[in-house]
């Protein structure tokens, strides 16, 4: 008998990816998967890629989750806090939602609204000292998808004084799965295919999270919806604060990282290379005209941006090697 885990909100895209990763994990036993409108339906009716997983969605209630050793919460923003509070303290929790990411209540109110539920340990193990904090925690707030891609590109440069913390500009394209599974007209195939469209321009909810995690003091993020199911490609630019080689700074920061890879000189990240993996691919240069530092980051938004990252954190919380059950290699074509 392995470590008993449950997934709340398992009918969504991130929830489905969690189920897939848990099913292939050598130490985890999936005992419960819950959903709202899909409660009572077989998991495979929603996730046909999991054919052979003999499980029925339960209703999302504390009683259905309380017997697990660890619970993943893959719920919409604002729904995790109440459910987590109703679980026994002995149950470890990884929240894939935003409810417990921000330390600043005013930032929560500005970008999300409603009551601030308080901050948990932030679930990005690659940040300095964070791996040990995650390992010691019983409650962990998983990163947002854009936040993972951008923070991994930017945080070491700010920490090393290689770039100024102000005037950071990011343009990032994401696949449609980042918007969730709910039916929305602007996400129909006929609307998305052959098109690129910006959204939440100047007011994306991941901005305060990225600033909190990186030390940036001013950050402009323009998200772009791309005609692909999954993946994020973020282009991060900042004003240099010295003459340090940004690529060398990133390479040193992630020299011992299993999942973050600074690519060889002249090789640039692309989303297909990270598909299905828990990896982040990075490359950096200095713009020959403006002098700005440019870092390009690629992740799978459902992998390192959501479910893969959550399993990485769970591994640390459970005393397992953080790479257990996770791949560093993408699936392409």
Automatic annotation (TrEMBL):
> Which transformation does this protein catalyse, written as a reaction?
N-acetyl-L-glutamate 5-semialdehyde + phosphate + NADP(+) = N-acetyl-L-glutamyl 5-phosphate + NADPH + H(+)
Q: What is its main location?
A: cytoplasm
Give the UniProt subcellular location, in the record's own words.
Cytoplasm
Mind telling me which Pfam families this protein's record contains? Semialdhyde_dh, Semialdhyde_dhC_1
Cytoplasm as UniProt keyword = yes
Q: What is its EC number?
A: 1.2.1.38
Q: Which GO terms describe its cellular component?
A: cytoplasm
**Annotated keywords:** Amino-acid biosynthesis, Arginine biosynthesis, Cytoplasm, NADP, Oxidoreductase
Q: Which SUPFAM superfamilies match?
A: Glyceraldehyde-3-phosphate dehydrogenase-like, C-terminal domain, NAD(P)-binding Rossmann-fold domains
Q: In which pathway does this enzyme or protein participate?
A: Amino-acid biosynthesis; L-arginine biosynthesis; N(2)-acetyl-L-ornithine from L-glutamate: step 3/4
- The enzyme's first-digit EC class, named in words, is oxidoreductase
| Biological role stated in the UniProt entry | Catalyzes the NADPH-dependent reduction of N-acetyl-5-glutamyl phosphate to yield N-acetyl-L-glutamate 5-semialdehyde.
Check the record and name the PANTHER family matching this protein: N-ACETYL-GAMMA-GLUTAMYL-PHOSPHATE REDUCTASE, CHLOROPLASTIC-RELATED, N-ACETYL-GAMMA-GLUTAMYL-PHOSPHATE REDUCTASE, CHLOROPLASTIC-RELATED-RELATED
The UniProt family comment states: Belongs to the NAGSA dehydrogenase family. Type 1 subfamily.
Name the HAMAP family for this protein: ArgC_type1
Q: What is this protein called?
A: N-acetyl-gamma-glutamyl-phosphate reductase
Q: What are the top taxonomic ranks of the organism?
A: Bacteria, Bacillati, Actinomycetota, Actinomycetes, Micromonosporales
This protein's gene is called argC
């Amino acid at each position: 008998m392995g470590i008993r885990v449950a997934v709340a909100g398992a009918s969504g895209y991130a929830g489905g990816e969690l189920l897939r990763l848990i099913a292939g994990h050598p130490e985890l036993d999936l005992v419960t998967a819950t959903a709202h409108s899909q409660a009572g339906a077989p998991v495979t009716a929603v996730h046909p890629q999991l054919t052979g997983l003999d499980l029925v969605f339960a209703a999302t209630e504390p009683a259905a989750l309380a017997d697990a050793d660890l619970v993943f919460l893959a719920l919409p923003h604002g729904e995790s806090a109440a459910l987590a509070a109703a679980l026994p303290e002995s149950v470890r929790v990884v929240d894939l939602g935003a409810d417990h990411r921000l330390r600043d209540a005013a930032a929560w109110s500005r970008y999300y609204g409603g009551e601030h539920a308080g901050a948990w340990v932030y679930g990005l193990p690659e940040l300095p000292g964070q791996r040990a904090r995650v390992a010691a925690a019983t409650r962990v707030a998983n990163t947002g998808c854009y936040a993972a891609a951008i923070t991994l590109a930017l945080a070491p440069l700010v920490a090393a004084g290689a770039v100024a913390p102000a005037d950071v500009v990011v343009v990032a394209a994401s696949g449609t799965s980042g918007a969730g599974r709910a039916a929305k007209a602007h996400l129909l195939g006929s609307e998305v295919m052959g098109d690129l469209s910006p959204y939440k321009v100047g007011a994306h909810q991941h901005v305060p999270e990225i600033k909190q995690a990186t030390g940036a003091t001013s950050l402009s993020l323009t998200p772009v919806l791309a005609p692909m199911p999954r993946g994020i490609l973020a282009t991060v630019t900042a004003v240099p604060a010295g003459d340090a080689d940004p690529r060398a700074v990133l390479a040193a920061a992630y020299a011992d990282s299993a999942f973050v890879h600074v690519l060889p000189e002249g090789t640039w990240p692309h989303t297909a290379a990270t598909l299905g993996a828990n990896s982040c691919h990075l490359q950096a240069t200095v713009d020959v005209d403006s002098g700005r530092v440019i870092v390009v980051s690629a992740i799978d938004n459902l992998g390192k941006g959501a479910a893969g990252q959550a399993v990485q954190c769970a591994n640390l919380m459970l005393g397992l090697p953080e790479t257990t059950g996770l791949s560093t290699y993408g699936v392409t074509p």
